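Quick one - first record:
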Amino acid sequence: MKFTIVIPCYKCEAWVKGCIDSVKAQSGDWECIIRVEPSSDNTVAVVRREVSDERGLDGEGRSLADPRFVLLEGDCPSGGPSLSRNIGIERATGDYVLFLDCDDALAPESLTQLEPFLASHPDVATMAINWDGNIRDTWEGIEGPLSGTEATIRLAEKQAFPLAMAQQYICRTQFLREKRLQFVSGVYHEDEEFFPRLLYLADSVLPTHLPLYLYCIRQESMTTASQARNVVAIAKVMKCHLDFWRDAQPAEAVTRAWTRTWLSMFFYVFFHPKASANTPAEKTRQALKELFCGDEAQLLRDFASYASKPKRLGLAMARFSAITGILWPTRIFFALYYSLCERGIRKGDCVCK
């Protein structure tokens, strides 16, 4: 079995060597496609030094020193990893694709440990995230294989706001191509947009629970950057979700699962007292207006009709703020909403599902 490891690189001079070293240490049959976008540091030079020598690359970007590595260079920054990941999917020759960020790493023998789980050829397998020593397994307590519908529903039952990192999924290459699954370029929070489509369209999803992805937290990374842009990005992600829901026409149980997870994401980024504390009010108004007063307004109302009563009330408050531009009543509502949620979680019965 062959793996294709796809690494988007941008402004990661200080970390990318460790990332590449973790790939070099893997056993088994693999290739690694690295796409570097231009930045103000020496990322390109570091990557070239690590994967090639004076012989350089062939016409396809493959290293003449180690043909397992393919180095591609972008002409300009694209604003995120989506384009590089999509090119990686197109160029992949492996049976499975694994996404790795340039400041993260794979645990030793990750591919060898994954291979027995992939012998049954699931469309998607999962692994846990080792987050600076803290293990985060989105799929803890859920065993497979599951259909995409089952996986969507079970995960929503377990977590209202599941971790949506693309890096925790190992995807069968042919499945990605058959379903035309690609990341939406130019959308910040691209993983949140991609992950519901990935799960739902899969015929089989297999959690492995193996903590093989070593996640590094750094202040300069895309995911730890300014929270101010999150509201505009999540509004765009929600619009993508709604378009997918309309086109997929899923079973009601799936729609209800998505109302729980998608609206939880929306509420959290826009109105959670901590998450939204540094977001300028004007940014929030702009994003709300785009979502509630644009082309998707009716679609959002149709979608929300499947949500729980607390979530429908939360959406009504958000819509009020979108129309009037007045935020403080909605913020007061959500301060109470999250207070009740936290009390419910402590009692084992969250009222905000």
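second record:
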Amino acid sequence: MVKPKILTKIKAKYIYGLDMGATNPKKWVLGVVALRSDAIILGNSGIAFPSIDNVGQQVPKQITKGVKNYLSLSHTDKGKKIMTIITSHPKHLAKLERNILLLMLHSKPVIVKHPALVGGAINDTSTWDEGRLAFLKDKKSGSEKIVVIKDSKDNAGFLLDTIESVELEQRQVKKNVQSVMNIKHRANNETYTSYLTANNKILTALMRYLKNHLESMGLVPKSNSLMSAEWSDKDLKVSDMEEQILVALYSEISSLEINTMLEMDVNELEKIYERLIKLGLLSLVRVRQEVELSTKGRTIVNQKMKVKDEVDKPLY
């Protein structure tokens, strides 16, 4: 029998096989963590991929005291929940986590409705279809792409770089109500919303993978909780006028028409554009300062509009 090939390995410190109910932490072991297609190898021990329950859980501070960067893995061994913690250089940890999640997600079964909404309108032709996950490189843009290879019909897919937001919600899928990922993404100057669901293990791993990607793009602040982070006033401050401009651009009004609509001086408006570009909320289209909302900008407006809708709801 051919032994599985080692895909990558890093020098690290780790605590293997920590009882999740234990109060006395084990000592860190200095060694090599190797990743194979079937398991994660830590010294003479290993964690088979099918046994992994979760990646990236928070760990009690008394265990990680003095350790800033770590990756946690929980798995089940003979019916017992066990945790392993790995610490290394942040770049090495990020690469290790990404590869672990990809191996956990590759070719796993999911159910998708793509697209469920087009520009906020319900897509009547969209249905729930079964398929398998794949992560590919888009030939045209070179960016990473999520593809659901369907058992029937055309495959569903979208670029990771076009994702604006990801949320978990409860929806009816065929005959059952279950947790569903609401993925808002952008293509061909239009906003689409797709729904995707799977078993809890796959759904959690995919949420973690997308959260890490959104963090790397600066679309959500870093947080240990899955997809719960939102930009706060401390993260980003915009004035009332800047917010009006962002909402106008979100409503597809040309940046060249905003000064007329808001009765603003052109020079003043261009200074605001420059500030919003520096914040990453706008992207420059032409040198003459025609701008459009960046993915980060659309994410911010999505969150602000969501909060406004909650405030404006009638009490009775």
